[in-house]
Amino acid sequence: MRKILLIWACFLQVLIITAQDKDYTEWYLQRKDVNIFVKELGAKKDTVIVIHGGFGANHEYMTDAVKGLTKKFHFVFYDQRGSLMSPTAEENLTFKKM
User: Fold this and answer.
1) More confident residue, 51 or 73
2) What whole-number distance in Å separates Cα of residue 74 and Cα of residue 49?
3) Structure confidence at residue 12 as a pLDDT band (50, 70, 90)
4) How many CB atoms lie within 10 A of CB 82?
5) Pick from 62, 73, 86, 77: which is nearest to 26 by CA?
6) CA distance 21 to 39
7) Choosing a second label site near 5 at 20 to 30 A (CA), which of 32, 33, 57, 98?
8) Could you write out the three-class secondary structure of the chain?
């Protein structure tokens, strides 16, 4: 029962995050060993590239930090190799490939 509640809470959080982001584009940068997930917010000329904290995480926890700035800047979030939306084999997780 506890696992079901945890899964349900995570699902609701994803719905809330998705509902908050009305002006965004998602796409994949295709590489030969991994497809890198990319999310873009805002549409201004100056671009800010946002990199999350490393393997296993994803960019979503950082989107709230830029709310209110999307009218001034264009933000590009991407999920690094081996992250939730950019999975790859362990041999592709090297500093050189990053």
Assistant:
1) 73
2) 9
3) very low
4) 19
5) 77
6) 10
7) 57
8) CHHHHHHHHHHHHHHHHHHHCCCEEEEEEECCCCEEEEEEECCCCCEEEEECCCCCCCCHHHHHHHCCCCCCCEEEEECCCCECCECCCHHHCCCCCC
Residue 50 contacts by C-beta under 8 Å, 6 or more apart in sequence?
A: 59, 62, 66, 75, 76, 77, 78
Q: How confident is the model at residue 10 (pLDDT cuts 50, 70, 90)?
A: very low
pTM to 2 decimal places? 0.67
- What is the spatial distance between Cα 29 and Cα 88, in angstroms, rounded to a whole number? 13
Q: Are 29 and 38 in contact (CB under 8 A)?
A: yes
- Could you tell me if residue 82 is left (phi over 0), alpha (psi between -120 and 50 degrees) or otherwise beta? left
